[in-house]
Design goal:
The chain is α+β, with helices and mostly antiparallel strands. The protein has three domains: 3-32, no CATH class; 45-119, Arc Repressor Mutant, subunit A; 149-246, SCP2 sterol-binding domain (Nonspecific Lipid-transfer Protein, Chain A), CATH 3.30.1050. The chain contains ten helices and ten strands. The strands form three sheets. Strands 5, 6, 7, 8, 9 and 10 form a six-stranded mixed β-sheet that branches. α7 (124-135) crosses α8 (152-158). The longest helix is centred in the N-terminal third of the chain and has 16 residues, at 17-32. The model is unreliable at 1-16 and 27-36 (pLDDT under 50).
Amino acid sequence: MPLLVRRDFGVIRDGSKKELKGAFFELWLYSLLFVDSFRYEQFCPLARATEILGHRWVMLILRELFVGPQRFSDLRRRLPGLSSSVLADRLSGLEEQGVVTRSELPPPAAATVYELTPDGRALEPALFALIRWGARFLTSPAPGDHVEPDWLGFAIEAFARKGPTPARRFEVRPYSGDREAILRVSGGPDGTHSFHDDLPVDASIQAPMTVVMGLMSGAISPESVLTIDGVQIEGDVEAVSDFPGLFEMAP
């Protein structure tokens, strides 16, 4: 006997017309969850922002686009648990709002990518503020939690100390599984900044992303980091003692 899946993941058996009508009505209601049509009846910029950003997955999609232009398949890989249909719906809504746009990569890539518009990029200060706020609720990763090493770039920017910092240059190579990012950060009288040149660094730190965050916050001391499996430091090992001083990040 055919089965129909209900919104509460129960099942009803095909039978009377009344049951069928009820099942299709619930499926119709479920489809409404993926329509960006709600509006708060308030004349308030926070209400407008919440209408755009308040849907599930939207902020995480935007986080990925702050990394750089992404193909649809890239977003699917980097956001496990997000279905193709919901991703397509969220991207469509962000395009309609003028936050995201599509462009075509030239050959040999010849692919369609999604990227932020100027209005989308204007969210950056709020994104970093939310990262700083969210960090106070961040505990150890749960089994199966997904991690992209280049997410550490957001933490570096969000927690960069604004005042004078140790005049050091570091290459940071966070990794998770077989994925690795290469990030560069420096300190000095004008504070902490990311940089993208190939000039020499004082030390290169290769470690799991969670270990680097622990080192940044002071939860892991520079003296003990070398005793952790999977950590490799090249260059001036003593320079690593200055690394936490580049950041304002409570342990």
